[in-house]
Amino acid sequence: MFCPLPLQWLQNHRNMKKIILIGAVGCGKTTFVQAMVKASLKYKKTQAMEYYDNIIDTPGEYLESRRFNNALIVASCDCHVVLLLQDASGKSCLFPPNFASVFVKPVIGIVTKVDEEIKDIEYARNCLTLAGVKKIFEISATKGLGLEELENYLE
């Protein structure tokens, strides 16, 4: 599905590496995309892979159901960086140990929802570390926390 991006965002982010977002249902992948493209934040369930200019947003079911993991691997071939997103307000880790090793691209971790009242950032970081991630960013897409640092890293 094609989603048009604001023209100014496209002009400002031509040099941003192409990324794919992988994470559980409700971990904040689509909200992250909306924050990155400076669109209004509204909940939208991702039903299929959605392609933006430099971002591939994947449904959480592709991670949760192992039979769809091959679709994530194939889609990542068109990207420069793989982003694994882990919700700091949740208590489930769906990434298997060394999950990052199946990708031939650099894999970074994103701890989302760091602004939530009930959160466990250390648990989320440990989940990503066990998945094989070396570099981890902490963000809040709704508050804009950590997005600029991540954007700079991706350019």
CATH domain topology: Rossmann fold
Give the class from helix and strand content and strand pairing.
alpha/beta
Helical content class = 25-40%
Strand order of the largest sheet: 2-3-1-4-5-6
- How many helices does DSSP assign? 6
The separation of the N and C termini measures 25 Å
Give the CATH superfamily. P-loop containing nucleotide triphosphate hydrolases
Shape: globular
Backbone CA Rg: 14 Å
- What low-confidence regions span 5 or more consecutive residues with pLDDT below 50? 5-13
Number of strands: 6
Average pLDDT score:
88
Q: Sheet bearing the most strands, described? A: 6 strands, mixed
SSE succession:
HEHEEHHEEHEH
In the CATH hierarchy, what is the class?
Alpha Beta
**Beta-strand content estimate:** 15-25%
Q: Do you know the CATH architecture?
A: 3-Layer(aba) Sandwich
Q: What's the domain count?
A: 1
